[in-house]
Amino acid sequence: MSEIASAMINTFGKSPKADFVSPSEQLITLTIGQLQDLITQAVEKAIQPLQDRISSLEDRSARLEEENAALIATQEQDVTRICLDIALDRQRISRLEHPTKNPGKTETARAEKIDKYLASRPDHKASFEALRGFLEVNAILLNLAIAALMKDAPGQYMIIKDKLDKRKRFLAVIPKIS
Fold first, then answer.
1. Segment 42-78, tens digit of pLDDT
2. How far apart are CA 72 and CA 80, in angstroms?
């Protein structure tokens, strides 16, 4: 019995049995379909985290595009509003710097004098220098009188520059075509 016990001990311990094959060296039989299914499952299992990551990134990208579009629209509206505000401010500043007022009695009286003076001249024109001398006013007051004259009778008068001396200007009556 000791022989049987020693034989059992010898075959039961760490030493491998004569007909023992390790699991990594065992042969298995699979059909091609089974092998393809195993490979497909393994690949799907391996790429699933990547597909989840890609879909989350696509969702995030879509949200960011929508947010960017909304921001751009808001910025365009802000820029338009700011440009309109600037334009209105410039108009207000211009009106403060150059107030447009109706001509006073003095400008109207001077405008009537200029009209009579031009009507009395044979060529119906006079230089600004001659008009200043005639009215005995400075250039600013003459310009106000001429502005009043042109406002009262638009299209009847024109300012002409001298062909030789561009600094000289003339006020002329535009002839009426009948």
1. 999 999 999 999 999 999 999 999 999 999 999 999 9
2. 12
Instruction: Specify whether the CB–CB gap between 148 and 110 falls below 8 A.
Output: yes
- With 0-12 CB in 10 A as exposed, 13-18 as middle and 19+ as buried, what is 134? middle
Question: Do the beta carbons of residue 166 and residue 121 sit within 8 Å?
Answer: no
Residue among 130, 111, 116 at smallest CA distance from 169: 130
pTM above 0.70, yes or no: no
Spell out the residues 6+ positions from residue 50 whose beta carbon is closer than 8 angstroms to its own. Answer: none
- Cβ–Cβ < 8 Å for 111, 145: yes
Q: Which of 161, 131, 162 is nearest to 149 (CA)?
A: 131
Q: What are phi and psi of 121, to 5 degrees?
A: -80, 145
Q: Where are the beta strands (DSSP E) in the chain?
A: 125-127, 157-161, 169-173
- Look at the block and give the residue holding tokens 């447009």: 100
